[in-house]
Predict the structure.
Amino acid sequence: MVPMDKPLIWLVGVALLGWISGWSYLLPRQMDAPPTEEPFILSAGEFVVASEKPFAFDWSSAELQLEPETAEALAALALHLTKHPELHLRLTGLYTSSERNGTSFPTLGEARAAAIADLLKKGGVPAERLQIAGFRMDSSPFHDGKLLNGVLFTFFEHPVEEEKQPQSPDDPGAVAFRPAGGDHHTALLSFSEGKANFTLQDQASLKALSDLRWHLRAHPGLEVELSAFYPETDAGARKLAQRRVETVRRYLIDKGIRRRNIHVKMVPVAPDAPEAGRIRAETRE
């Protein structure tokens, strides 16, 4: 065995320590990274179903792609509808003008909505309680060649007159927003305690964020202001608020919203303010 001198042993030890420290630093952040796919979350009053995997469509295709857990979520929706005969459901499929429609439906969006409707009918939901429509997006909603969760769900208790082309995919019965006038919307997003990323426990916020994304894609002239509220006396809370608002900003950018259309501001509030620790998203022209 060739002996090593002390300086070389020291250098090897420092390098090994640096390597271990580097991985110790990076690993927690990798574990805390936000998911690359958006979950499928649907709510109607107290009824909520969720799946970590979305349903998807390929470009110019109306063939529904489902993971087993997402199929279970849609089966639970069908069961809920069969137990509540007063409920009706409007399915609005998204599509772009550059896609080719090889289906028998007037638009590819309607064909995609029909794919979900067929699944629900197999689960026992009467056809007369389901409506389908298509909505053309002004810009491509595809992510890595896939349209994720490309059908919007709107619940209502009385049938409405069918429209071939709804004016907006954001029906007040289907989204977690409240109107702020015209095409403007606002939502208050909550996070699990101490977390900077959303989890499946944050179902209402995930639904609101997904709806915000679709609303901005449907109205490309709008901008969005993200206000991060934090207790003014807590430096740690400010850092957490910065990480939370960056999570929301990064999500929107990854989903095709232009960086220049997203504005961020930090807002100090009283420690007992109801909005402390939350992010408000508000659209504007």
The helical segments are 6-31, 68-83, 108-122, 203-218, 235-254.
